[in-house]
Amino acid sequence: GPEIRLRVRRKRKVEKGDVLEVGFGREEVSFNHSFYDKMSISDDVYIDNGKIRTRVIQKENGILRLSVMNGGEIDDGKGVNIPNKQLSVPTLSKRDLQIIEFAKEYDVEYIALSFARSVQDVNNLKSEAHGF
Q1: Are 33 and 22 in contact (CB under 8 A)?
Q2: Domain residues for 108?
Q3: What is the pTM of this model?
Q4: Are residues 77 and 113 both part of a single domain?
Q5: pLDDT tens digit sequence for 44-69
Q6: Are 70 and 14 spatial neighbours (Cβ–Cβ below 8 Å)?
Q7: Both 11 and 60 in a single domain?
């Protein structure tokens, strides 16, 4: 399902006051979905279920610079939340579509959809899994 995750090449600690540069491609630290255009200065970005809170302080050339408000350890695959923003993250990722095809091929009994946001999300899954 449509969860935003952090991609990190190597685990590292961040401390209050640090500035974390996060991109949307192949940078050292990046997001797994592109929503750069939707972000604004002073937007909050929470990492690892809110354990690490950051705030956008600069937005330039496809990179967000985040001021760390409370420290912790960032690692690959940690969930990212951006409160008070409607982001257009697709319901089904490329990986989800591959898994649906695998499920069809191997007669899997059911498919669950994590992070469904609306009835339309469920209908999109049903449409892709047609014949399942």
Answers
A1: no
A2: 94-128
A3: 0.72
A4: no
A5: 999 998 999 999 999 999 999 999 99
A6: no
A7: yes
Q: Are 44 and 54 in contact (CB under 8 A)?
A: yes
Q: Are residues 21 and 53 in the same domain?
A: yes
65 phi, psi to nearest 5 deg: -100, 120
Task: Identify whether the C-beta of residue 63 lies closer than 8 Å to the C-beta of residue 27.
Answer: yes
Looking at residue 45, its amino acid is: V
Kindly state the tokens that stand for 64: 């967000």
Residues 38 and 64 in one domain: yes
What residue has token string 């491609």?
Answer: 25
Question: Distance (Å, rounded) from C-alpha 80 to C-alpha 131?
Answer: 34
